[in-house]
């Protein structure tokens, strides 16, 4: 790569807040679009407060903004299974007829694999609801199936993306079970099956650091053709300290076959010494670790962009999902910080991402990288207030389906709100 031709420019893009400020609104993660396929409705969670500790009885309204009717907000339900980072996994079922959305709820009639939680499919056109006995994490683009994991386990290992339960289950989940792991949910029948167990994962290219460690799965993404699943396999012996987390980037077929290991960040952990103080770890130290594998996303059906270490250097990397597939650095000189990245759904020339707050100014940056011109457009700077790690508000930028708009969550105006940026000045330049 010839880095001498790479540069950063500031590009102004029109921005507006969705809805009014009476409530706080957020969508959550960067990995799915909140827009309906026709671009009219934008999904959101709505709460009365900007910040709160998660509790099993803390309720959020679920609904959508109508962007063709003064951003009127329509409530379609409510849920107590949500968190500030990912919401309730609210997302559209783009492969189903009409407008159907799915989100997680608390299950008052336990009959699934994970008794505390389930999911609701809401038909916006008819107003009808259909209940699934298990929660969902990511939905396949064809809407035939979803992938899920135990959100109670996530609350123990990675509280920011898990769901709390009425009774404290910390320390009660098995470290590496053989009957649980990455699970597939049939969205028509509701049937759930295990694709690969935690025990199977620990035996696949086993590392000694996996012994006596608790294992979990996160960052599950399905490629556009719905034929391949990526995920992060993580494990640790010190769950209270994220800098002790170890990571592997994995892919697998939807039937559980052809599992591949693309990257392994197993490394020395001085934090495991008895004299280490986990309370000394800063809010964003984990995200800025030189070893972390994070925020993987499919560029297309065969390639994955991820922030992670490869050949002893951490960068934005592009992996070819194939045996002995190539790994290439993306803009080593411009994109130098961990962020939440995704390619434009209409043109992979454009890579959208953000940064974590600057340690002195608390400013986050919003960027679109032009892979053709080796040029990064800085399209916004957003101040973040001093929230706790669990309740922080990352920008989590998401594309509209036509690639002309970007939606973010932000607290730069003292409330938690969603904003839409018109990025045509960048992508149509």
Automatic annotation (TrEMBL):
UniProt cross-references to SUPFAM superfamilies, sorted A to Z: DPP6 N-terminal domain-like
State the protein's name: Dipeptidylpeptidase IV N-terminal domain-containing protein
Source organism (scientific name): marine sediment metagenome
């Amino acid at each position: 790569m010839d880095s001498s031709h790479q540069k950063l420019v500031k590009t102004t893009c029109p921005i507006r807040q969705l809805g009014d400020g009476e409530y706080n609104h957020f969508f959550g993660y960067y990995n799915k679009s909140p827009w309906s396929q026709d671009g009219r409705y934008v999904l959101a969670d709505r709460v009365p407060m900007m910040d709160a500790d998660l509790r099993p009885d803390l309720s959020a309204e679920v609904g959508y903004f109508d962007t063709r009717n003064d951003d009127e907000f329509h409530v379609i339900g409510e849920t107590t299974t949500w968190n500030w980072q990912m919401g309730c996994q609210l997302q559209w079922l783009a492969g189903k007829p009409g407008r159907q959305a799915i989100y997680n709820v608390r299950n008052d009639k336990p009959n699934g694999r994970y008794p505390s939680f389930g999911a609701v499919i809401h038909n916006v056109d008819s107003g009808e609801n259909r209940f699934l006995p298990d929660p969902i994490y990511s939905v396949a683009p064809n809407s035939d199936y979803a992938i899920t994991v135990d959100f109670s386990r996530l609350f123990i290992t990675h509280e920011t993306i898990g769901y709390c339960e009425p009774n404290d289950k910390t320390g009660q989940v098995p470290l590496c079970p053989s009957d649980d792991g990455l699970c597939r949910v049939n969205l028509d029948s509701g049937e759930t099956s295990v694709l690969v167990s935690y025990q199977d994962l620990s035996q696949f290219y086993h590392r000694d650091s996996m012994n006596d460690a608790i294992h979990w799965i996160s960052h599950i993404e399905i490629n556009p053709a719905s034929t391949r699943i990526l995920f992060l396999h993580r494990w640790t012996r010190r769950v209270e300290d994220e800098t002790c987390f170890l990571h592997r980037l994995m892919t697998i077929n939807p039937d559980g076959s052809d599992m591949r290991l693309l990257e392994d960040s197993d490394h020395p952990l001085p934090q495991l010494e008895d004299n280490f103080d986990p309370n000394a770890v800063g809010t964003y130290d984990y995200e800025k670790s030189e070893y972390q594998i994070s925020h993987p996303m499919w560029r297309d059906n065969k390639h994955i962009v991820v922030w992670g270490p490869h050949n002893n250097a951490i960068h934005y990397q592009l992996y070819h999902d194939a045996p002995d597939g190539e790994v290439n650095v993306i803009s080593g000189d411009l994109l130098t910080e961990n962020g939440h990245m995704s390619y434009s759904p209409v043109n992979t020339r454009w890579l959208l991402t953000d940064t974590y707050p600057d340690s002195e100014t608390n400013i986050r940056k919003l960027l679109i990288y032009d892979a053709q011109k080796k040029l990064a457009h800085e399209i916004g700077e957003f101040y973040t207030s001093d929230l706790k790690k669990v309740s922080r508000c990352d920008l989590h930028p998401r594309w509209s389906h036509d690639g002309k708009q970007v939606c973010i969550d932000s607290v730069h105006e003292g409330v938690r709100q969603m904003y839409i940026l018109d990025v045509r000045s960048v992508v149509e330049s």
